[in-house]
Amino acid sequence: MALLAIEGFDHLHGNDLVKKGFSAGYSITSSPSYARFGGQGVIAAATTDGFDLEIPSKSTIYFGTAIKKAESGTPVYSFSYPLINFKDESSVSQIRLYVMPDYSIDVYQGDGTLLGSSAAGTFLNLKWQYLEVKATISATVGEVTLRINENQVLNLTSQDTKNGSDYIKFIRTGCVNSSLQVYYDDLYVDDAQFNGDCRVKTFMPDSISGTNNSFTASAGNKDECVDEEEQNGDTDYIYSNTLNHKQTFGITTGSLGTVLGIQLNNCCRIDEVGTRKITPLIRSNGTDYSGTESDEITADYLFESEIWETDPDDAAAWTQTKLEAAEFGLEITT
After folding, report:
1. What are phi and psi of 152, to 5 degrees?
2. Which residues contact 32 (CB under 8 A, 6 or more apart)?
3. Which fold has domain 207-332?
4. pLDDT tens, position by position, 188-238
5. β-pair partners for 61
6. CA–CA separation, 297 vs 277, rounded Å?
7. Same topology for domains 3-190 and 207-332, yes or no?
8. What is the DSSP letter of 223?
9. Which CATH architecture has domain 3-190?
């Protein structure tokens, strides 16, 4: 029972989203213009815009995202333009959410059966809001619960939400019709609970480990080679070809509220023939803690990411003090 995904889009070029597991099948644009609190957000501006987020297959998920209809104009209902579309492993639609002309939210089973509607005016026009959805797939006890800014606006139980398999595998975002733009930012996916209105902050390396310091800088200081929020490929980087080499960095977070979890992102590629794998690494309270070994690293830059909901040293919640005392990086394990 855990966070399955978090994303604030701050460290991603539009074409980098596919390097982090988002679908390459749709037009995806990131920009500070689409963000809620600074950093970056993404836009769905037309029929083919948006993204598919792939998650581990689950029969119940909780999905939250900051969302804003960013253009004047009334949504025009069309079954082609769901705001959110939950799909199974074969990309069969299970549950679809639509914004209607009266700004209610309609919930449909994937085959087109209307399951229920919120009150008019539920979806806020031209305003940032935090939308959360609980979705359970079942032919008899399916459930869809909607929250806006942590207030429940619809609760559907004992529904037939199954149109494909028993699971949700992809979450598809979209616009409110063929032309009205929608912004997305600060999202999470959980398999256990609502997490409320969340902000996803990005922190870049700003100091070099005194212990795990085996990699080489392409030029200058190692932390300055990897401190770009949007990765810059071969412009500057760190590198090693030695098994069990480790490199970790410190970060500065500043004041934080409650930390629900952190995601460590390593963007890497190989430049030689052979097999390499890495393991994300956290050094906390003087001890190294390894995450899950990656798949084989490819010749193209891709993100290897892992979430820690708690500090691995004491299994307690992260805080500003803990994060700023810890180090984050990777180890070459194959």
Report:
1. -70, 130
2. 38, 39, 40
3. Jelly Rolls (2.60.120)
4. 999 999 999 999 999 999 999 999 999 999 999 999 999 999 999 999 999
5. 135
6. 6
7. yes
8. H
9. Sandwich (2.60)
